[in-house]
Amino acid sequence: MGRLSTSGDWQNWARTARATPRRVLHPRDLGELSSAVRGGAAEGLRVRALGGGHSFTPVAVTDGVHIRLDSVDALERVAPQDDGTTHVTVGAGIRLGALNTLLADRGLAMRNLGDIDKQSIAGAISTGTHGTGARLGGLATQVVGARLVTATGDVVETSPTQQPELFELARLGLGSVGVLAAVTLEVVPAYRLEAREEPWPLEEVLEQLDGPDGLVEGNDHFEFYWFPHTRRALTKRNNRVPDDVVVPLPRLRAWVDDELLSNAVFSLANGVATLAPSTTASINGFAARALSSRRYTAPSAEVFVSPRRVRFREMEYAVPRDELVHVLTEIDAWIESSGERVPFPVEVRFAAADDLWLSTAHGRETAYVAVHQYLRLPYARYFAAVERIVAQVGGRPHWGKMHWLEAEQLGALYPRFGDAQRVRAEADPTGVFSNPYLDRLLGSSHRVAA
Hints:
This protein is of the alpha+beta class.
């Protein structure tokens, strides 16, 4: 069943979830992975797979068997397609950073990415990780096949034409129907992006969001960070450019921006705000004024991904795109009236509508509003207030980030939620892959294992 760990203690990156499972296994191949699941199920133990631990929720917690997929990370197949894309099959445990390198070495790239590359591909797609781009979907929309180890230890190939209903939850289903062994991704030829980062007045950002030439539609990838207690935002516009357009970012400038300011100084600022909350508005104002513009080109993954070394807690909600300005206005009003102090920027991104059953962008053009709080600061009051605000417009919580919704509320937000519950119950009738948190989200329609 693979190598057995000597210690089962585990906690996630954000320090919001912990587990001490009875057994921790490190399967090295598909056979060992199948045996690990079958053995846990035979003993009546709950089985959960672990990726990079970057979910802010207890979705991976178990007191039974933890399966670490780090060694299930090999490249299996590269298959060019007639439409110019390529299908690449990789082990489900591969981290996004390693996947990006593997693709780049072959002249390939992901169509879209988020800004962190420490997750496993399995964890990233299973929790609905996304990037930004009005014409682009999240990572799970780039999945065209998935190999799954089921509750009986059997190996099943799924795709839009092979067990398509099971495929829906294999690619975005919180590990509720099995353990992913491999994923087939539709990737594209490698490309360069021109990154333009500029501080803007918040009002100008909101006024220029929409329209054919607006910030959202007029760029391949657009996002912005608003600094609470200020009227300032940092805008990021990333657009494809020909390979011969080379505008390097000087190494010193990159270090100053990405390491010194974004991590070391930012960590210090949050520490000061923690000890002296009354300084928060001044700190945010200084940070917003200190921002400077920069423009450079680089391979896509180097532009998308940013180093994140300051630990935080995060809640992110997907709202209808045309409700974004209203939502931000309400959040701003609550922060200022409540006396809450928020040293972390609010991040706003965009995505196209899609048809994945449990996608937060299912059936609607979407804006994502992510609120953060420093690890050492209380977050519950702030996050709960934002959750009340987004509930007014049918906000859907990111599956990998903090929230307080349960199955009844989530069922009202997703047209195919009942289908997801049905397929889960059919695939895992005894709750091998369940835990209390997953039952809270999806309901306990099956007999849970002991």
